Amino acid sequence: MTTSRNSMWSASYDILIVGAGIAGSALAHALSAASLERSRPLRICLLERSLAEPDRIVGELLQPGGIMALKKLGLESCVEGIDAIPTYGYCVMLGGMPVHIPYPEGYEGRAFHHGRFIQALRAKAKEAACVEVVEATVSELIECPMTGRVLGVRATRKEEGAVEKEPFFADLTVIADGCFSNFRNQVMGKAALPPEVKGHFVGLVLEDATLPIPKHGTVALVEGHGPVLLYQIGTHDTRILVDVKNPVPADLKNYILKNIIPQLPSSLHLPAQKAIEKDRLRRMPNSFLPPSEQGKRTKEGVMLLGDSWNMRHPLTGGGMTVAFNDVVLLRDMLLDVRDLADWKEISQVLSKWHWARKPLSSTVNILSVALYDLFGAHDPLLEVLRTGCFKYFELGGNCVREPVSLLAGIEQAPFMLFRHFFTVALYSIWILFTHPRQVRVVDGKPVYARPRPDEYPFLAIKSLQVFWTAIVVFMPLLWQEIRY
Predict the structure, then answer these.
(1) Nearest to 301, CA basis, from 349, 342, 351
(2) Strand partners, 172
(3) d(CA 242, CA 203)
């Protein structure tokens, strides 16, 4: 429900949530609904700078694992009535040929306009009996001058004659203000980690475009450049995201027209050219931020949630799935807390939550960066691994079912990912020795041949380099998840 200024003035809440995006809106609704079921209603305030429909180029593909989490939160209706498109897997364009990677039978994701989905989540939060939604800009945290504990926030409402920096108090403050969080460093203190920006996604919407495999996310591997991601987000709309590495070219339109569009499937050329001519190019940083444990070394009375705390590369579309799963776990744990003002108890909950979320979050985090390294490979050793990866998928059975279940957020198993990643590395080495590769071009046609025995010593050395490259890609990512 929304509130008037008089009913909110000097009010104190059990939980204060800053940011009505994916995680914030879901948490507000979930806590309200579950607390009423337990006959222990919580007073919740949800603060958002602007309740207008947002217009973003990411957060538009929800994996099957995210759909499963939505159902647990009672929010599955949020993907209905917004012209969302079912997705049934991926199509990877490699050398002009499509590689089909379907989701396991019975599972589907959804793709949609980000703003429509957000508004549906906010509508659920507004309907919740225990939630007060306030349109206001949060400017600072309120801290106890003696202990430094966060007691709430100061915010200015978006209304005529609003009081500047009005105080909002709560036993627990949850900061869910997104990837550009204003409070991340203040909350995390010495435990704060800087986000690593791995380039940018530049986005456009194509009208009435035909994808190589309808209702599948499409990843086009572009020679000499980063991957291009496409998925249908409405009856007539298809999102295209072009990976652009740093430094970003000054003339992005010309860069995309000359280097990217000619390498896409021919059915996409005309829609892409039209979109560039009439649409404004927008970009978002592709950031990676591992999650540091909260509670022990972070500021008391406050916690981070969503992209303000943990980010991964958006190539695999796993961010919202992780966020909804986080909310599922956090909802149940917070409702078991006897006193939300008892930081010792909250600290224990945050530690428990941190490790309970690891099976899914670690899998998605590691996979997002590892796949980006393979798909954006311009290194000959990474290209060997990439070729081995697709040959591995061609084996079928568990060689495709289990990896895509990890990608889809259906399976939560980092060590299954470890097993498949290094199996792919070994299979890539096998392919080096046994599969034909291009040796020359005759009359414009490539000629292929298997390696000769006299090439084996060179290939043995290259095999060691390939396996070492796999270790360098995967193990630091795994260590970050274990370490933090």
Answers:
(1) 342
(2) 15
(3) 6
Closest CA to 323 of 311, 332, 315: 311
Q: For the beta carbon of residue 328, count every other beta carbon within 10 angstroms.
A: 22
Give yes or no for residue 377 having a pLDDT over 80.
no
pLDDT per position as a tens digit, 145-173: 999 999 999 999 998 888 899 999 999 99
Greatest CA separation for the chain: 85
Query: First-to-last CA distance in the chain?
Result: 38
Residues 269 and 166: their CA atoms lie apart, in Å, by 52
Instruction: Give the predicted TM-score (pTM) of the model.
Output: 0.94
Q: What pLDDT, on the 0 to 100 scale, is given for residue 10?
A: 53
Q: Is the pLDDT of residue 104 over 80?
A: yes
DSSP SS3 for 83: coil
Residue 77 DSSP code: G
Phi and psi torsions of 269, nearest 5°? -60, -55
Q: How many CB atoms lie within 10 A of CB 74?
A: 14
Q: Name the token pair of 65.
A: 């694992």
* Residues 295, 31, 327, 144, CA torsion sign: negative
Identify the band that residue 484 occupies on the pLDDT scale cut at 50, 70 and 90.
confident
φ and ψ at 463, to 5 degrees? -65, -40
Two tokens, residue 429: 């080495």
Using the 8-state DSSP alphabet, how is residue 160 labeled? T
Phi-psi domain of 426 (left: phi exceeds 0; alpha: psi -120 through 50; beta: other): alpha
Tell me the C-alpha distance between 164 and 435, whole Å: 70
Residue from 39, 52, 23 nearest 304 by CA: 23
Cα separation, 268 vs 221, in Å, equals: 14
Q: What's residue 233's pLDDT?
A: 98
Quickly list DSSP for 412-471.
Answer: --HHHHHHHHHHHHHHHHHHHHHS-EEEEEETTEEEEEPPPGGGHHHHHHHHHHHHHHHH
Kind and range of the H or E run holding 482: helix 456-483
CA-CA distance, 211 to 272, in Å (whole number)? 12
CB atoms within 10 A of CB 90: 23
pLDDT tens readout for residues 461-478:
999 999 999 999 999 999
Distance of CA 223 to the CA centre of its chain: 25
Average pLDDT over residues 357-385: 93
pLDDT in tens, 298-345: 999 999 999 999 999 999 999 999 999 999 999 999 999 999 999 999
Alpha helices in 86-138 (DSSP H): 114-127
